[in-house]
Amino acid sequence: MADLKFTTIEESARAHFDISRDEYALCNYIQTWSAWPGNRKPGYCDRTKGQMADFIGISSRGIMKMLDRMESAGLVERMSENTFFHRSTQRWFDVVVMAKEVRRGEQSSSLGENKVPLRGEQSSSLGENKVPPHKELNNKENKEDYKECENALPDSENKSLKEDKKEKAPLVAPPPPTRSRQPKQVDPFVAEIVGYMNQKTGRNFKPETGEYGKGILARLKEGYTAENMRAVIDYKNSEWGCDEKMREHINPVTLFRASNFDRYLQAANAPKILQGQQSAPGVQTNQSRYAQTSRGQTTSFGGDAEKFNQKPLF
Questions:
Q1: pTM for the whole thing?
Q2: Which of 111, 149, 150, 229 is the one with CA 20 to 30 A from 281?
């Protein structure tokens, strides 16, 4: 036998015993299981306290306290102190059975007063009232009757009737309004720097791109100026502009990245000795050394340049 799923509570009996609904459910649970012939002790409920606790929805300790209260109230009795077999008492049985009989009597009497006609009675009444069921209505005749009513109405009322019919037509929900995308506001400083880069590189970077403005404004916040940024653009364009592989790195993200910008700026500000430009003051290049030796001055190896260039005699 599967465990109980619900309990029908006789409110009159519960009020007579002055117990809670959980206590009533426990007593009814014990009464129901004590009548099951498969119990280990016939006439007694052999459910464990864990099973009772799961049914009521409380802890096992709570079940033990509730059982003690029901035993004290004379509604449940135990087979012996050393066992956990329970059954309902005669007091419980008498009051609950009486409450059930009273409830059933009230239901039967109410059925007699508010008698619901049976199927045969409904069909016989149709013969007297001549009211056919809804499913047997002749739609064709109804349409013809409606047309006759329309023709009998005056023109003004007939027109209003047709307008009412149009108004009752199912409404189609209008399409949701389309949201027009507003152009993003571009920071003037970002537009200036990106425009300068486009001018120098011949590219077409969009100043409204979020990643571009993020790096430029971050460097500006750190204290770098527009002149510093233009210097980096000029330097990297002259270094990478003719290299097909490195040309792709001339973009706002790479140049103005926090880990790159200061390094590129320091390189841009350094003397351009190896770039074929004019030497910095106090720095002697290989070309200047060669020019001095050609005028007969001493080379780094010592002696005249002419002696240095002479062929050995042997």
A1: 0.35
A2: 229
Every domain of the chain and the residues it spans? 11-95, 188-269
Q: Say which residue the tokens 């320091």 belong to.
A: 266
- Per-position DSSP letters for 73-137, written without gaps between them: TTSEEES-TT---EEE-HHHHHHHHHHHHHHHHHHHHHHHHTPPP-HHHHHHHHHHH----GGG-
Residue-wise pLDDT for 238-293, tens only, equals 999 888 889 888 999 999 999 999 999 999 998 654 455 544 444 444 444 434 44
Classify residue 284 by its DSSP letter: -
Q: How far apart are CA 149 and CA 290, in angstroms?
A: 121
Secondary structure string (H, E, C) spanning 21-46? HHHHHHHHHHHHHHCCCCCCCCCCEC
Cβ neighbours, 10 Å, residue 233: 23
11-95 classified as CATH 1.10.10.10: yes
